[in-house]
């Protein structure tokens, strides 16, 4: 099953200042999440950014906030919607499911931290709510590689589709030799 641009949205979970430095390969997670945010913005894919208990683990990392201010020429600009949460699962947070459903899209590309806690619980909550969930495994991690690997394995076994950042970008694009493809090349190279 392919990730379709017109059927999907992007959800970035808890990439926050005090937690990110403790994450295994955290720079890779942030870099790939930025690539997906920029690709979503350029292609008109709705994006959402969750911030968990900011008073305790800080605000969203600047790279994520700054990624949302790029100029776009390929499609109308789509700015991400930021929301606060206190539940581990975004799907358990009041009004979030309604917010996501209001897009009319049933596929969710999921990224963020920590893979074995908030990302996993969000993935299963969204899956139970009827969404098709695609985890971009190279745009998520945990404090230890063991927890990341266990989270990915458990999600895969539970019916969550596992992909990579490039899989998502190429599936959103669907074809080469277009202005959109040329516009996204810097995110792929």
Provide keyphrases for this structure.
189 residues, alpha/beta, Rossmann fold, 8 helices, globular
Topology:
Layout: E1 8-13, H1 26-43, E2 47-52, H2 54-57, H3 62-67, E3 81-85, H4 96-101, E4 107-113, H5 115-128, E5 132-141, H6 145-157, E6 161-163, H7 165-173, H8 179-188
Parallel strand pairs: 1-2, 1-4, 2-3, 4-5, 5-6
What does this structure look like?
With 189 residues, the chain is an alpha/beta fold. 42% of the residues lie in helices and 20% in strands. A 6-stranded parallel beta sheet has the order 3-2-1-4-5-6. The model has no long low-confidence stretch (mean pLDDT 93).
Low-confidence segments, given as residue ranges, are none
Write the element-wise H/E pattern from the N-terminal end onward.
EHEHHEHEHEHEHH
CATH class: Alpha Beta
Task: Summarize the biggest pleated sheet.
Answer: 6 strands, parallel
> What strand order characterises the main sheet?
3-2-1-4-5-6
CATH architecture: 3-Layer(aba) Sandwich
From the spread of the alpha carbons, the general shape counts as globular
Rounded radius of gyration (Å): 15 Å
- The CATH homologous superfamily is named Isochorismatase-like
Q: How would you describe the oligomerization state of the chains in this entry?
A: single chain
Percent in helix? 40-55%
CATH topology assignment: Rossmann fold
Tally of contiguous helical segments: 8
Structural class: alpha/beta
**Approximate strand percentage:** 15-25%
Distance between the termini: 25 Å
Number of domains: 1
Give a count of the beta strands, DSSP E runs of length 2 or more. 6
Q: Whole-number average pLDDT?
A: 93
């Amino acid at each position: 099953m392919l990730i379709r641009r017109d059927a999907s949205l992007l959800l970035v979970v808890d990439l926050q200042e005090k937690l990110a430095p403790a994450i295994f390969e955290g720079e890779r997670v942030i870099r790939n999440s930025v690539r997906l945010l920029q690709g979503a913005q350029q292609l008109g894919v709705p994006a959402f950014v969750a911030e968990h208990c900011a008073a305790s683990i800080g605000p969203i990392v600047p790279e994520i906030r700054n990624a949302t201010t790029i100029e776009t020429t390929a499609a109308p600009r789509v700015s991400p919607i930021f929301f606060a949460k206190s539940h581990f699962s975004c799907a358990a947070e009041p009004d979030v499911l309604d917010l996501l459903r209001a897009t009319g899209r049933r596929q969710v590309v999921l990224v963020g931290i920590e893979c074995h806690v908030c990302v996993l619980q969000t993935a299963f909550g969204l899956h139970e709510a009827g969404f098709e969930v695609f985890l971009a495994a190279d745009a998520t991690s945990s404090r230890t590689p063991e927890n990341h690997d266990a989270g990915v394995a458990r999600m895969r076994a539970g019916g969550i589709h596992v992909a990579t950042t490039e899989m998502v970008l190429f599936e959103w694009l669907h074809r080469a030799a277009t202005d959109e493809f040329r516009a996204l090349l810097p995110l792929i190279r």
